Amino acid sequence: MALKAENVPGPAVRTAPVFDVGIDERVPVSSAIGLGVQNILGMAGLLIFPALIGTAFKLSPSDTAYLYGITFMTSGLVVILQSVFLLRLPIVQGPYAGSLAALLAVGHAKGGGLGSAFGSMVIAGLIWCVLAIPLKRYGLITYLSRFVRDPIISAVIVLILATQLTSTALPNWLGTPQSPGFPGVNLIAGAVGAVLVLVLTVLPRGKILRRLAVLVGVAAGTVVYAIFEPTSFGDIGRNVGVVVPKFFPFGFTVHGDLVVIFFITLFPAIAESIATYDIVAGWGGQDLSAYRVSQGVFGEVVGSTIGAVFGGMSTLAYPDNIGLLRTTRVGSRYVTLTTGIILLALGGLEPFDRLLEAVPLPVLAAVGTILFGVLFASAIDVLGGVRWTRENLMLGGVPFITAIGGLFIPEPTLQALPMVIRLVFGQPMIIGTLLLIVLKAAFGLRRLGDRGLERRVLGDAEPAGATTET
Predict the structure, then answer these.
(1) How far apart are CA 301 and CA 127, in angstroms?
(2) How confident is the model at residue 470 (pLDDT cuts 50, 70, 90)?
């Protein structure tokens, strides 16, 4: 049963049991590998973000390949930490869109390029590492989780995230007039993948097919696409080198204002991850202590900071894979451990990176559309247990509408704003999370004030009544 929103949340948000395979259950190695590869194929940002940075900063093909490798390894490191050492939940973490937006926005701002961007990101990450040190009673994350783990907060954060992801779903599925396969091949190949995922997921029987639905859908869609359009699979064997991590490969410079920007940017990623931890733990029927949450956040920021030292992006709990958990109904954290090992080991192999680069974006976007829909509906499911008081209507509605409005701000308007304001307004997760926390805190203070006033009134009334009776 879901918790009421006005209650102070302690354990995870409870919903009806979701997983056929529990969080602490093991699966056969072959199944774990298949599901692990499927998890990677669901991480669209992992396959797109390094290319976007390479294009924006005119990096050489070798530098872009390095970005791919280090992004894979950063995600793998964090996933391994979360699955067995710290959080112990089936959470797959991948590159964070807010981190990408900040890199693109500030990379040219101070003349230091990616060196100043990654250097400032490292310092911001180190500050968060100190703030996120797991403490059972007085830690900052323990206090923050009291706000975020309110079911209405966690569900609205996921709703904002799922809605924001729609900009990467149908648009990338359709493509642009300049992209190969536009529009017919993109639509048909994507539809084949999406329909297969949908059909295999709702089969009343056939657990194996349901668990591998995304893998089957992506493979079938890719084959259909390759029949009509040239692909880059032939380039896979041309480079057989390995990616060797390098300290600050783009240089190291720190600017105080950029540190502030990256510090702010990391906040909604942490809040989103806390909300996701709670929902997934509820699906698995596990109680999630505040200390365990703080361990998870600590693992996330430590892994992200280490990744930034080598040129990788910050990570957050990946929404695609949360939808995948609901679709496959396999909640084993040993599957995500396998995913992390695959990411860490094969992320350093250039042929593997090129194999994943060769999967057509329209197919990934089409399959992602199904997963984003499942994620959105799962947040609605959590909201089903909320009692909609006047405060909760404001708390749930105002941040959501304001955050999504950021998607429609004209680019010239954003460019006319200061850099920090531009990032806050242009990233729905940032402005939405900040509004949720501020409103939650304001309503909490108001209730405390009302109780204090009530106690004072009752305290004044009692002596008067006693005198009258005497």
Answers:
(1) 9
(2) very low
- Smallest CA-to-CA distance from 190 within 209, 168, 210, 170 is with 170
Nearest-Å Rg of the Cα atoms of the chain is 23
Answer whether 221's CB lies under 8 Å from 367's CB. yes
Distances from the Cα of 150 to the Cα of 25, 29, 145, 160, angstroms? 28, 37, 8, 16
Burial string for 38-47 (b: 16+ CB within 10 Å, else e) reads bbbbbbbbbb
C-alpha torsion sign, points 193, 198, 202, 207: positive
CA–CA separation, 367 and 313 (whole Å): 24
Q: Which residues neighbour 175 within 8 Å (Cβ) at sequence distance 6 or greater?
A: 181, 182, 183, 186, 361, 362
In whole numbers, what is the pLDDT of the chain averaged over residues?
Answer: 82
- Number of residues written out for the chain: 470
Instruction: Return the domain boundaries, the chain.
Output: 29-383
Decide if 20 contacts 330 (C-beta within 8 A): yes
Q: According to the model, what pLDDT value does residue 354 have?
A: 63
Helix (H, G, I), strand (E, B) or coil at 93: strand
- What lies within 8 Å, CB to CB, of 43 at 6+ separation is 75, 92, 94, 318, 320, 321
Point out the least confidently predicted range of 12-26, 322-336, 406-420.
12-26
Q: Report the alpha-carbon distance of residue 440 to residue 149 in Å, rounded.
A: 11
Which among 375, 280, 320 is positioned nearest to 43, based on CA atoms?
320
pLDDT computed for residue 362 by the predictor = 87
CB 213 within 8 A of CB 206: no
Q: What is the pLDDT of residues 341-380, one digit of tens each?
A: 999 887 777 666 666 666 788 888 888 888 788 878 888 8
Give dist(CA 318, CA 316) in Å, integer: 6
Round to whole Å and give the CA distance between 407 and 428: 7
The CA distance from 382 to 374, in Å, is 13
pTM recorded for the entire structure: 0.76
- What tens digit of pLDDT does each residue of 117-166 get? 999 999 999 999 999 998 877 788 887 887 777 888 888 888 887 888 78
